[in-house]
Structures are given as C-alpha cells and as structure tokens.
Amino acid sequence: MKPYIQTTIDSDFSQKLKNILNEDFNPAHPDAAWCSYINYIWTFKGFVYLTSVIDLYSGKIISWVLSEMLEASHVVEYIEKAKHVRKVKKPLIFHCDRGCQYVSEASQKATTGIILSYSKKAYLWDNACIESFHALLKMEWINRFKIFNYRHAYKLVFEYIETFYNTVRSHSHCGYLSPDQYEEAYYAALDEKAEALAG
Q1: Contact 106, 77 (CB under 8 A)
Q2: How far, in Å, CA of 95 to CA of 102, rounded?
Q3: Residue 73 burial (10 A CB sphere; 0-12, 13-18, 19+)
Q4: Closest CA to 136 of 198, 72, 65, 59
Q5: How many CB atoms neighbour CB 124 within 10 A?
Q6: What confidence score (pLDDT) does residue 108 get?
Q7: Nearest Cα to Cα of residue 23 among 103, 130, 109
Q8: Distance between CA atoms of 3 and 63, rounded to whole angstroms?
C-alpha cells in the first residue's frame, strides 16, 4: 500500500476553520447545505474508504467515491461529481471535518465559491447527520456480508445507495418518503406555486 505523507499545515490554519453550519441539519430547500464524511469498510484484501456527500434537506447521498487509499484527489472527484449532478449555480454550505483531505489545496480549489464549514475538534455531533448514514449502511447492509475485495465492496455500496437508500428507503426526516420522493415533492410544490401565480 502506498504510504501516506501528511504535508505541513500552518499552525494558525486550524483556527481559521469555522463551523458555519452549527448543527443546523434542516435547511429549507435542496442544495442549501451539504455534509461530507469519510468512513472505512473492511474487506479480506484490506480497508477501502467511502467518501460521501449528503444533501441535508432530503438526506440524499448526492455523490460518493469508494477508494483503496485516503487521498485528497478522491474528495475532489466526488465534489466535482456532486456539483455536476446538482448543477449548483449559487453558493451553499459545504460541511466536513478537519481531515487533511478536506483542507488540502486541491479540495479548497474544488470548493471555490462554496461556503466552507468545519466541525469542531473532537466533537462528533457536528457530523451526526452523515455519520448516521454510514452507520445505517453498515447495520442494514454491509455487515451482512463477508466482503472479498474493493470490487465486491463497490457493488454492495452501489446497491445500497442507488437502489435502496436514495430511492426506496423511507426516512422519518422526510415524512416517511425516500430522499428522492421528498425532493420530487418539493419541486412539484414549487411548480404548482409558479402555475398559480402565473394563472
């Protein structure tokens, strides 16, 4: 496995990382706030790492990357994917922890124009919204299997997120709709309001 080398960070840099989100996990509309987290999945060939981003309005996982190493390039990859999928045109809050992948120069460049928010040191509640997703992924699905390798893990993660969690699984936060259904209801209500005003 390729060794990980941590680059030097300005001693004052950590103090500049502010918690803008401040545990406000219930924005009024989609793409107001995203939250990201990196977690590991054990396989017989070693750990693989799931980096994901959740839209806090619906709880939808809008982008994710599974990798065999912890590198900033993977964070950049899924940030770019999320921006493309959601067609973000206005600033939003992007919340994450203080891991070196998130404070890297590449990650900072990928989030240009986005309001960055960072968890407080050693305070798990700041990321509770996305950590709960990773806990569900393992409890409801991953822990049922003996995972052989990266390819097997990728297949399982894809099945859970893309064919169940986002599309089918009901969430109390969404009025017992799935994240996809909850967002569809939001945009349908906007369309109805626009039609009423036009009529």
Answers
A1: no
A2: 10
A3: middle
A4: 59
A5: 10
A6: 86
A7: 130
A8: 26
